[in-house]
């Protein structure tokens, strides 16, 4: 029983003790990071951030940021700058209570705001790991952002309309008929066993099939127009050289030296002394030229290597 009054006295003493004043620093980091909203219209403002030795701090911005200066930078093990973030890690040389000034410039469009961060050295348990900094937007910046969003929406709508229009375009033989690339003769094919190589790389063209369709040339349908032939040549290419080969471009060449660019597709690179790969070239030229004997020139990327075959026929 005598101990009870003494215990009550201790409790009364604790209850009457004055409350210690709280620090003006931000509350301790609970793990999710702190959100800091910059004041609108203030060209220069100051905010405190808690740091500790060997503890990384990430400052994440919703706009572009430029580091202007870091007081005592030699005492930081890591200072990493990116377009919209800063990553800091102080060394053990800093002392508790030390305050370092770090001015930065936050950029949004043509406007900018200077923010002076005061880095306060605290024990590790009180240090902040992440601070997300949000730029207070002005009415002008909101209008500019709205214009950008409207322009993005307009571009997306235009792209969607273009894709829908492309999907409505016919394919296969219908596409050739609609484009008037095929006439009553249809597709004329011709088989060739091998093309003679005239110059260039040690490549061989085997198992060829040529395709030809004929159509009326562009212009007034009531007037006599030169007939055009759309031709394609399918071949198997073998490689007897020491380097891999991938066709990047092609041309058909007439006996008189006239040239016609051709689109080219190759199944896969042709490796030296390995299996053959399919190559298809396609071009459009006057029908009279297509019925003659042509040369086929192929080249690689950059046109550093080439090969020319003769005896191409689209009979």
Could you characterize the architecture of this molecule?
The protein has 315 residues and is of the alpha+beta class. It folds into 2 domains: 108 residues, Sandwich (Immunoglobulin-like); 136 residues, Immunoglobulin-like. Helices cover 17% and strands 44% of the residues. It has 4 helices and 18 strands. The strands form 3 sheets. The protein has a 9-stranded antiparallel sheet. A 5-stranded mixed sheet has the order 1-9-3-6-5, with no helix packed on it. Strands 2-8-7-4 form a 4-stranded mixed sheet, with no helix packed on it. A hairpin with a 2-residue loop joins strand 7 and strand 8. The longest helix has 30 residues. It is elongated, with a radius of gyration of 38 Å. The N terminus is likely disordered.
Summarize, please.
This protein has helices at residues 3-16, 139-168, 172-178, 287-290; strands at residues 34-37, 44-51, 56-61, 64-67, 76-82, 85-90, 99-108, 111-121, 130-134, 188-195, 197-200, 203-216, 227-239, 249-253, 259-266, 277-286, 293-299, 306-313.
Q: What does the secondary structure layout of this molecule look like, with pairings?
A:
Layout: H1 3-16, E1 34-37, E2 44-51, E3 56-61, E4 64-67, E5 76-82, E6 85-90, E7 99-108, E8 111-121, E9 130-134, H2 139-168, H3 172-178, E10 188-195, E11 197-200, E12 203-216, E13 227-239, E14 249-253, E15 259-266, E16 277-286, H4 287-290, E17 293-299, E18 306-313
Parallel strand pairs: 1-9, 2-8, 3-9
Antiparallel strand pairs: 3-6, 4-7, 5-6, 7-8, 10-12, 11-18, 12-13, 13-16, 14-15, 14-17, 15-16, 17-18
């Amino acid at each position: 029983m005598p101990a009870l009054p003494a215990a009550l006295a201790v409790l009364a003493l604790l209850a009457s003790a004055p409350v210690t004043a709280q620090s003006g620093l931000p509350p301790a980091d609970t793990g999710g990071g702190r959100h800091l909203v910059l004041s609108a219209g203030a060209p220069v403002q100051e905010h405190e951030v808690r740091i500790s030795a060997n503890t990384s701090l990430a400052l994440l911005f919703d706009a572009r940021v430029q580091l202007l200066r870091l007081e005592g930078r030699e005492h930081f093990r890591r200072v990493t700058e990116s377009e919209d973030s800063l990553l800091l890690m102080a060394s053990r040389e800093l002392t508790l209570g030390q305050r370092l000034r770090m001015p930065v410039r936050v950029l949004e469009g043509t406007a900018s705001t200077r923010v002076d961060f005061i880095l306060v050295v605290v024990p590790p348990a009180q240090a902040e790991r992440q601070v997300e900094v949000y730029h207070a937007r002005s009415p002008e910046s909101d209008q500019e952002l709205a214009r950008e969003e409207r322009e993005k929406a307009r571009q997306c709508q235009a792209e969607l309309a273009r894709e829908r229009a492309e999907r409505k375009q016919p394919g296969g033989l219908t596409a050739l008929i609609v484009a008037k690339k095929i006439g009553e003769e249809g597709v004329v094919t011709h088989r060739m066993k091998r093309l003679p190589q005239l110059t260039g790389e040690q490549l061989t063209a085997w198992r060829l099939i040529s395709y030809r369709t004929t159509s009326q040339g562009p212009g007034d349908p009531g007037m006599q127009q030169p007939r055009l032939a759309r031709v394609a040549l399918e071949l198997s290419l073998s490689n007897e050289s020491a380097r891999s080969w991938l066709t990047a471009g092609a041309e058909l060449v007439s006996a008189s030296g006239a040239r016609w660019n051709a689109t080219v597709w190759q199944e896969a690179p042709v490796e030296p002394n390995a299996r053959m790969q399919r190559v298809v070239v396609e071009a459009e030229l006057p029908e009279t030229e297509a019925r003659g004997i042509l040369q086929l020139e192929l080249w690689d990327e950059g046109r550093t290597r080439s090969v020319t075959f003769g005896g191409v026929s689209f009979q």
